[in-house]
Amino acid sequence: MEEEIVIASSSIDGGIGCWDLQTGTENLRYKSCASPPHGLTSVGRRFLASSQLQDAKAASGAILYWSWSRPQVEVKCFPEEPIKPLVANSEGTYLVGGGLSGNIYFWEVATGRLLKKWRAHYRAVTCLVFTDDDSLLVSGSEDGSVRVWPLLMIFDDHQMEQASQLYEHSFQEHTLRVTDIVTGYGGGNAIIISASEDRTCKVWSLSKGILLRNIVFPSIIDSITLDPGEHVFYAGGRDGKIHIGALSADSSSIKSHWLHIIGSLSSHSKTVTCLAYSTNGNVLLSGSEDGMIRVWDPKTHNMVRVFRHAKGPVSNIHVLKRPAYLNPRMLSNVQVSSRRHGLSLPPPLSKYINTMDEKVVGAVVNLQATCNNPLDASCTSSQVISCQIKELQQQGSAAAAEMEVEKLKLDSTQAMQMLQRWKKMYDNLHEFCVDELLEGDHVKSAN
Amino acid sequence: MAKTKGSSKKQQNRGIDFKKIKRKIGRKLPPPKNTTNTEIKSKAIVLPEQSVVSEKAGLALSKKGLTLKELLQHTSHHNAKVRKDALMGMKDLFLKHPEEIKLHRYAVIEKLRERISDDDKTVRENLYQLLKSVILPGCKEDNQGPVISLMMAYIFNAMTHLAIDIRLMAFKFFDLAVEYHPPLFFSYAEKILQNYEDILQKNQFYLEDRGKLKNVLAGLVRCLLLLPSSKEVNLLAKNVPEQKILQAFEHDVPTVFAEYSVIIKKLKNLVPVLVNCFQDFLPVIHDSLDAQSFDCMLNILRSLDHAVTFFIHGVQQGHPEPPPVDQSFSSVLLKKLLVVFPLSPMHHLSEKDDDRYVILNIAITEIFMHLSEWICPPAVLFEKFLTFVEYVLVEKSCSNVRSGKAVREKQISTLIPFIPKLVSRVIGNWKNRLLQAFTKTFQDCSPESSVKLACLAAIEEIIISQEDLLCTDVNDSGQFDYKITLVRELPKLLVLLGNRHPSSSKVVLHLLLRLGQRSLLYDDMQGLLKEFYSTDQDKGNICYGPFLRLARDSQELSICCLYYLSQLDSTLLKSIASCCLCQELDPFMLFRIIEVLHSTYKAGHIQISDHINFLITLASRYKVCPENIFPATDRDKKTSNHATFKSLTSVVCSCLSQMGDNSLVFVILEKVILEQISLKPPLDNSCAMLRILIALDSKPTRLSEQSICTLSNVLSAYLIDVAHCVPEYNDESTIHEQTRRYYLLPSFILFDRSYKLLNLVLNVMGSLINGRSSSLLSGDHIRYAKGHSSIINAIVSVLLWMQRDAKVQQILYLYKEEIDHISRSICSLQSSEEINVPIEERHIIKCAIDRLKTLTSSLYQ
C-alpha cells in the first residue's frame, strides 16, 4: 500500500503544511501561502500550486508554485484578475482557475500558455472540480449556479460557434453562493453534489441533467466529501458538525428531524471549513476554523489524530499519494537531479491569450523528470519515446539482443560442462596418484 | 261496494206497492231472470313467501324495489321506456350503495355498453348521464383501463352507425372515456382520428346541429391536448422529484417521438379537413356570430393549435420528417386559415359579440405564433399579427371600464408568453412598440390577475434569457430603459401584493432573486424594498411590511435577494433589524437573516460599521420576555424566548469574531457597547453585551482606562441586579446554578483580565453601602434591586460567589482592604441606623454580616 500525505493550507499566511498520514510526522512546510478555499492543488503530484488571497483592490491575481523539495516559492504567476479556485487535471497537464469576475481561465502547465478564457458565471467563481475522467469541468459560483463544461466543447471552435451556450448543464436551483462541489465516480454518468450557503446540498445527475435530491441542513455547509462507496457523503457545517447525508444509504430507518441526514460527527467547536477522505487509510479529515486538522474514523465516529496547522482557519486539505520527491531515501538524489536539470518547474502562467501561439499546435507534452518516478512510468512523454526509439535503432532490436544472450548462455553452459569434465579428470588423476603413492609405501615397508 | 248496497235499498223502498216499470228508449233489455252469472271474480294472489323475493332481503334495491340484476335485464327490454327507467333505477341504486359499483363494475359495463348505440335518444342521454355522474367517478381510484376499454368496441361501432345522431352521441361517449382514462387515446389513436376525419368531412349536417358538432370538437380538443408539446417537457423538467432511492429505475415515458408516426400521418389528413370546416363557418361570421358556432370555431382553432404545437415539438425533437409534406401542411394553414385574419364583423355589434371576435382572433394569433417558430411567414402577414398583438395589449389596458374583462384577461394571458420571443425576433421600431405595449399591460393589470403572473414569467424571459452569456450584443438604450422600468416595478408589486397572494409574492421574489444573481438589481431599489420589511412611522411607531406574514420559503427568498445587492445601505438594514426584533418573527428566520447578512458582509456588500451596528442592535434591543425569569414556572418556560436570546448572543459573538482582526474590531466595538450598556438595558441584554465584549477581548484586556472606569459602575450595578434577580435558595437546584453562572461568567472573565476592574467594582460597592454614592451615576444603573437592605444583601452574595470561583478568589486576595472596607461599612451602617430601620431589614443586614464574616475569615487564612 502506498503511503499517503496530507497537505493543507490556510487563508491566513501559515504556509502549506505537509504531514505523513500514517505516522503523523510533519514534512517540509512550504512558506508564504494564504490561499482561499479550493485554491490549493497539486499539479500531477509534481509540484504544488496555489492561488493567493489578495486585497480587494488588487488588479491582478497571484498563483504560486512550490516544488516538493524546497520550502520557498519557486515560480510566481500574475494572472489578469484575482483567481480564487484553482484546479489541475489528474495528470497535471492543465491548470484551471476561476476569476472574481466569473471568468474561467485555462492554462497549459508545461508551456504556461493561456489556452482559453471564457465568461462562465455572472459572479465570482467559487469552486472548480474535474470529474474523475477529466472530461468535464464543474464550476460553482457566487450567483448560485452550478455549470458543467465539457472540455471537448471548449476546445472545439466550430461547435462553439454553433451552440447557443458552452455549458452542458446549468443548474440554477441554489439561491445563494455555492460553497463546494464534489463529483462521484463514473465520468459523464456520475452524480455531483453541490453545497451552498442556502443551507442545502443538492445531488445532481450529470447524465440526465436533473436534480436527484435536495437535502436541507441545519446550518450552512462549507465543504463536502464523498464516501468512496458513494454510500453517504460528509458535509462540514458552520455549526462545527460534520453531518452525514445519505446517498444510496437507507435513511428511512433513522428517525431524524432532517430528511436524508443520518448522523453527525462533532467535536469541533468552530466551523468546519474543509474535508477530505483518504481511501487508503479509510479516514476522514476535517479542517476547522481554529486551525486544526482532525482525522476521524468514519465507522466509529472517533477522532484518530490531530494535526495542528495554523492559527487561522484551514482553507484546503488534500490527501495525496506520496510523491517520489518526498521519499527520504530519494530526497538527496532528487535534489541533485533537479539541480542538474536546472528546470524543475514549468514557466509561469501567461496573463493573456497569445494569438501568435495558437498556430503552433504542439503535442501535449507531459512534464520531464518522469523517469525519476517509477510510478509515472506509464505516462511517458513523446520526447522520451522518440529518444528510446532512436536508441533502439542505433543498438539493434531487442530481439537481437535476446539472441545474443541466448548464445552467450549456451556458451556458458558448454564451458560449465567442460569445466565439470576437467574437474572430474583431475579428481581421477588425484585419486590415482594417491593410490600409487600409498601402494608404493606399502611396497617399501614390505621390502 | 257500498254504493251498490245503497242503491238496492232505495229500489226496495220504492217498489213495494206500485210496481211501475219505466223503460227508456234505446236501452237494452234486462237480462232474463234465469240467466246464469258467467262473471268470474278473483282476488290478487299474494304468496307470503317465494324464493325470488327472499333473496332480495339482503340486496341493494332501487327506489322501485328492483335489484341490480333485474335492472340490468331491463336495460335490454324492447320498450324504450323500460330501458330508460332501468337506467334511472341504476342511477339511484348506485347513489345509495356506492360499493355496488366496485363489486359489479365489469358486469354492469358489459351490459350497459350495448346501449351506446341505442335507437332511442333519451336512453342514450340517460346512459351518458349515468356513466358520467355515477359509474365512472365511482370506480375512479381503481384501475380504470380495463373498464373503459370494455366499452371501446361498442363506441367505435356507434361511431360508424348509420344514424347520424348515434354517431354524434358516440363521440360524446368517447370524450367521456378519454376524460377518465387519457392513455386510451394513444392505444386507439389511428382509429379515433380516422373517425373524426370522417365525421367532419360529412359537413352536410353540421350547419343544422351545431350543438352536437360542438361536442364532437370538444372531444377532439381533449384528445389533441394529450399530445406532447414542448411546454409539457419544460414543466416536467422543473419538477423536483423527492424519491426515496437516489438512482431509481425510471418508468419509460413515451418521449420518443418516433412512436407517434401513425398519429402524425392521421393528423396531417385531419388538419386540412379542420381548416375546411372552419371555412364553412366564415359566411356566418360576416353577419352574426351565435354562441354555438362561436364555440365550434374556437374548438376548431384550438385543435389546429394543438396539432401545430405537436408538429413543432416533433421537429424540435429531431423527428425525421419529409420536408415537402410539411410545406404543404403549413401552406394549407397559411393560405386558407391565416389569410382570413383578422376576423371582423361587417357592422358594429354589441360588446359581447365584439369580445368573441377578439377571442377568435387571439386563437388564430396563437396558431400563427406557433407556426412562425417553424416556418418563416411573409412579412406582411407578420406585420398584421404584430399590429393585432399590440392593439390587444394596449386596447385592453385602455378599456378597463368595458365589460368582459375577466374573459379578456384570460385570453391576453395566453398571448403574453409569446412576447419575449417576438421582442427578440422583430426588427426595427417594432421592438420598442412591443415592449411599450407590454410594459403598459404589466403596469395596468391588477396585481392578483393571471395576466400579472404571465407577465412576470415573460419578464424573466425577456431580461434573463436574452442577456445570456453568449448574446452580449449591445442593447440599444431604448430597450434598456424598458427593462429598468420593468425591474423597478417589482418591489412596488411586492408591497402591493401584501400577504394576500402568497404564491404571486413568491413568484416575484423568485424573479428578484434571479435578477440579483445576474447583477441586474439596482441599488436605488432599496428604498422600495424597505417598505416590504418595515418602515419607521413618526414617533418610533414601526409599520411592518408584508415580509413578516409571508410563508417561510418566501421569507428566505427575500433574504437571499439581499445578498445580491451591491451595497446594502443602513436604512434598509435598519428596517430589517426592526423586523428581526419583532416578536412575531420565527426564531429560525431570525438566525437565517443574521447568517445571510453575515455572508453578505463577507462578500463585501455591507460596510463594517453598518454590520456591527446591526448585530449590536439585535443584542441590545431584543426583547426577552418575561424580563425577570425567577421564579420560573413551567408556563413561563414555554412562552419564554430566553433560549432564543441565548443562542442569538452566541451567534452574534461568533459573527463578530469572524469579522477579521479581533483587535481592530474590538476598537470599533468598545465604544458602541459601552454606549449601549450605559443605557441600562434589561439584565439579559447587558449580559449579552458583556459576552460580546469578552468574546473579542483578550487577556490582558484591551479596554482603555476610561472604559474600565465606566464599566466598573455598570458592572457593579449589573452584579447587584444579578444577585437580586437570581437569589440563592437553600435547595440549590442545578438549573439555578447554571443560570447564575451564565450571568456571572462574563464579569468574572473581565475581572480575570483586568484586576483593576475588580478593584474599582469593589470600591463602587463600598461606596454604595455608605450611601454616599446615591448621588453618583452608578446608583442609577441598578435596575431591579431597590432599598438599602436588599442592595447590601446582594453585594454580600456577589462577594460570596466571587469567593467560590477559583480564579476570582485568587484576585480577591489582592483586595482584602476593599472587602474589609465593605464589611466595616455594613457594620457601621448597622450601628448607626439602628433606630430607624425596621426589624426585618435589620435582620437581613445581620445575616449579611454573618455571611461576610465567613468570607473574610477564609480570606485571611
Structure at a glance:
The complex is a heterodimer of chains A (447) and B (861). By secondary structure, chain A is of the alpha+beta class. Chain A has helices at residues 151-154, 157-162, 328-341, 382-395, 398-446, and strands at 4-10, 16-20, 40-43, 47-51, 63-67, 75-77, 83-88, 94-99, 103-108, 114-119, 125-130, 136-141, 146-150, 169-171, 178-183, 191-196, 200-205, 210-216, 221-226, 232-237, 241-246, 261-266, 272-278, 283-288, 292-297, 302-308, 314-321.
Walkthrough of the structure:
Chain B: Pfam families: Ipi1_N, TPR_TEX10. Chain B: One of its GO terms (cellular component) is nucleus. Chain B: Residues 1-12 have a biased composition (Basic residues). The complex is a heterodimer of chains A (447) and B (861). Chain A is an alpha+beta fold and 447 residues long. Helix content of chain A is 19%, strand content 35%. Chain A contains 5 helices and 27 strands. Chain A has a 4-stranded antiparallel beta sheet with strand order 3-4-5-6, with no helix packed on it. In chain A, strands 7-8-9-10 form a 4-stranded antiparallel beta sheet, with no helix packed on it. A 4-stranded antiparallel beta sheet of chain A has the order 11-12-13-14. In chain A, a hairpin with a 5-residue loop joins β19 and β20 (232-237). Chain A starts with a strand and ends with a helix. Helices cover 68% and strands 1% of the residues of chain B. In chain B, α16 crosses α17 (379-398), α30 (642-657) runs parallel beside α32 and α37 packs parallel to α40. The longest helix of chain B is centred in the first third of the chain and has 27 residues, at 261-287. Chain B is elongated. The termini of chain B are far apart. Chain A binds chain B through residues 56, 119-120, 122-123, 142-145, 164-166, 172-173, 175-177, 191, 197-199, 203, 205, 210-214, 220, 238, 247-248, 252, 270, 289, and chain B through 237, 240-247, 468-470, 472, 513-514, 517-519, 556-557, 560, 563-564, 592, 595-596, 599, 603-604, 654, 658.
